[in-house]
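Action item from last week, closing it out:
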Amino acid sequence: MKLGFSLLEGLFDGVLVIDKDLRVVYANRSAKEFFGESLEGKSCRGLFSICEHCPFEYVKEEGEGVQVYDTTSKSSKHLCWSMSPLYEGDEFIGVIEIFKDVSNVVHCIVEAERQRTYKETILNSIVEAILVLDPEGKVVEHNKVASRMLCREEDESLVGRHIKDLINLSLEELPPEGERSDIFVETPCGKQKASLLMSPMSSGFGYVVSLYVLKDMVLCELEEESIITRSPAFQKVLDTAKTVSEYDVNILIEGETGTGKSLLAKYIHYLSPRRDGPFIKVNCAAIPESLLEAELFGYVKGAFTGAMRDKPGKVELAEGGTLFLDDIGDMPLHLQAKILHLVQEKEFERLGDTKTRRANVRIIASTNKNLRELIKQGQFREDLYYRLSVVKLLLPPLRERREDIPALVNYFIEKYSRKYSRKIRGISPEAMRTLLSYNFPGNVRELENIIEHAVITCRGTLIKQEDLQIEVENNSVEMVEERERIRKVLEETGGNKSLAAKILGMHRTTLWRKLKEYGIG
C-alpha cells in the first residue's frame, strides 16, 4: 500500500490505515501520541473494544463505513470511532479508522446523569410538591408529589405546562416571593387549601414553588367513625351543633339519606355533659309498628302473650344519656302522642303498666322527610314537630359539598385497606374526576360503599375508574364531558359566566344551575 498520508498529520483526530491483513500501515501524529507508541507494522487487533466484533469484513463486503459513538481503548478511554473502506482504483486495499478521544465528554454526560439522578432522588424525597418554573411560569422540573397533589397520573410529565393550567393561578396571583402563604388552588380533584412558597432562582432563571395541602378540614373522631369536612356549609352545621350540645334542648336533624345524621347525633352526644351516659338509637322506620311501642317504653310481665318477664325499653336504657329517634317521620301517628308526652313531661309508662316513670334523657330526632308536608297531610303532629325542633340542623347533601369528596375518598381507602388488609395507595385522577362529577343520590353512605367495593376488587395498588361501581344512568359519559367542557370554557373566559353561557349556548340561569350541580367553583 503506497499512499501519501501527509495531509493527515495535522489532524487532531487519530487516524489509522489498516491493510487487508489487519496490520497498521500508517498512524498519524495524534494516533501515536494517543497510544504512546509506533503502531506501523503491528496488528490492529485489540486496539479498541469494538475489535471484539470487528466490522472489517462488513465494511469490505458492503463497501460502506460504520461509526461507533462510544468505544474504548486499551487504556479505557472513551472514543468516537469510525471505519471506512479504502480503495486504490477499484481495488479494496484496506480501511481507514478515525477516532477521537471523547472521555471528557462522556465524563460530563455521566456526571450530568449522576447529577440528574441525585436531583430526582432529592426532589422525590421532599414531602412537599415542588414545581421548578421558568421566568414565564412554565414547568421545567417537578417531583412525583406534585403530580399526585395536582391530581395527575404519577407518570404524567408536567414539564412545559403553565402554572395557571395546573392550579388556576398565574405567577402574578401567587404570594410575594419568599413569603409562605395559605392559598386555594384548583386541580382536577377539586379546590384545595395549600401552603405555598415561591422562591426566585439566581440570575433570573425562574422560580421554585413548594406547596402542600393544608388539613383545613374538620376531623371529629367518634369511636370507629369520623366526621370529615372542609365544606363551609357543613362546618357551620358542626359549629352550631357544638354550641347547642352543652344545653339540654331537643334537636331535630334533617337531611337526605346517607348524609350522616346518626353520626352528627353521636357528635352532639359526645360533646354534651351527658357524654359519659349511654347513646341509645331507635330506628323508627326499621322496627315493625306493632313492636315499636314495646321497644321504646318497655313492658311488664303479662302485658301481652309472650311477655314472660319485665323488660325495660330504650327510654330507660338511655337514662342519663341521649335517646336518638332516627327516621322520626316514619313513626306511627298513635305513638307520636306518647312521644310528645315524653318530650314535654319527661314521663312514660311501660306497656301494660300503670306506674308512671321519670325519664332523664336528652332527645335528638332525625328525618329524611319533609315533616311540614307530613303535617299538612295529617301524618305528623304539629305540636310534636315544634317540641322536637327547638334546634334544627340541616345537613347538606354530598353533591353540595363536593370539596369533601377527595378527603372522604382517602379516608375510606385507608379505612377499608386496613380492614381488608389491602395495600391500596390511592385513586387515579380519572377515577377521582368521575366521583367529583357524580351526584351521589345516596350521599356519603353511597360513596363509602363505592370505595369499599373498589378496595376489595382493585387488582393493583391504585383504584381506577373501572373499579368504581357507579350506576351508569346517574353518571353518564355525557355528564362528565359536559362538566369538563363548562370548566374549560370558564377558564378560557377568565371566569366570566355570562360570556361562558353564551359560548356554551345556554341561558345564564342554566349555567348557574349546572355549576352548582357539578360542584364547579
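Closing note: Residues 6-105 form a domain with the Beta-Lactamase fold (CATH 3.30.450.20).
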